[in-house]
Automatic annotation (TrEMBL):
<dbReference type="GO" id="GO:0009264">
    <property type="term" value="P:deoxyribonucleotide catabolic process"/>
</dbReference>
<dbReference type="InterPro" id="IPR011343">
    <property type="entry name" value="DeoC"/>
</dbReference>
<keyword id="KW-0963">Cytoplasm</keyword>
<protein>
    <recommendedName>
        <fullName>Deoxyribose-phosphate aldolase</fullName>
        <ecNumber>4.1.2.4</ecNumber>
    </recommendedName>
</protein>
<dbReference type="InterPro" id="IPR013785">
    <property type="entry name" value="Aldolase_TIM"/>
</dbReference>
<dbReference type="InterPro" id="IPR002915">
    <property type="entry name" value="DeoC/FbaB/LacD_aldolase"/>
</dbReference>
<keyword id="KW-0704">Schiff base</keyword>
<dbReference type="GO" id="GO:0005737">
    <property type="term" value="C:cytoplasm"/>
</dbReference>
<dbReference type="Pfam" id="PF01791">
    <property type="entry name" value="DeoC"/>
</dbReference>
<keyword id="KW-0456">Lyase</keyword>
<dbReference type="GO" id="GO:0004139">
    <property type="term" value="F:deoxyribose-phosphate aldolase activity"/>
</dbReference>
<dbReference type="GO" id="GO:0016052">
    <property type="term" value="P:carbohydrate catabolic process"/>
</dbReference>
Length: 176
């Protein structure tokens, strides 16, 4: 597989707390130049990117980022606003406190509500694998699938560890 083909599957991302508009513009230009899957940016930039670039690049933003423990109503509101402002994709951080407390019914309910709020937009669920047991990861694969999300992701990049090959293999085994 050639580099350009790989880039078509990569979200070009800038989520640091101090991201400036100039940095976001550079990110967008690089995404257009290299043909990445999308730009993933803080929610406060979605409308501005949409106004500046129109449909020249898909826009992804984050919900409940980076810790995931926002209340469901806030995540639903964030999702609705992101969609209204032009987001094509939403990266939702799962509520790890609920996972760790075994409240999987609440996790599923939240996933379903955000799925509904996202409508036809792509929904990716970030599960932050560095904090999870193997059993929790498998259970989340099932919930993410049941809720109708489009993708599962291993990490925010802000946790204690990033993506691990064994987690990707586990997801592949349990989701496909």
């Amino acid at each position: 597989m050639e580099a350009r083909e790989i880039l078509r599957h990569v979200d070009h991302t800038l989520l640091k707390a101090t991201a400036s508009w100039a940095e976001i513009q550079a990110l967008c230009q690089e995404a257009i130049e290299f043909g990445t899957a999308s730009v993933c940016v803080p929610p406060c930039y979605v409308a501005r990117i949409k106004a500046a670039y129109g449909d020249r690049l898909p826009i992804c933003t984050v919900v409940g980022f980076p810790l995931g423990y926002s209340v469901t109503a806030a995540k639903v509101l964030e999702t609705r606003q992101a969609v209204a402002e032009g987001a094509d994709e939403v990266d939702l951080v799962v509520n790890l406190t609920q996972v760790k407390n075994g409240q999987f019914d609440r996790v599923l309910e939240e996933l379903q509500q955000v799925r509904q709020a996202a409508g036809t937009r792509v929904l990716k669920v970030i599960v932050e694998t560095c904090y999870l047991t193997r059993e929790e990861k498998i259970h989340l694969c099932q919930l993410v699938t049941q809720a109708g999300a489009d993708f599962i992701k291993t990490s925010t990049g802000f946790g204690s560890a990033g993506a691990a090959l064994e987690d990707v293999a586990l997801f592949r085994q349990h989701i496909g």
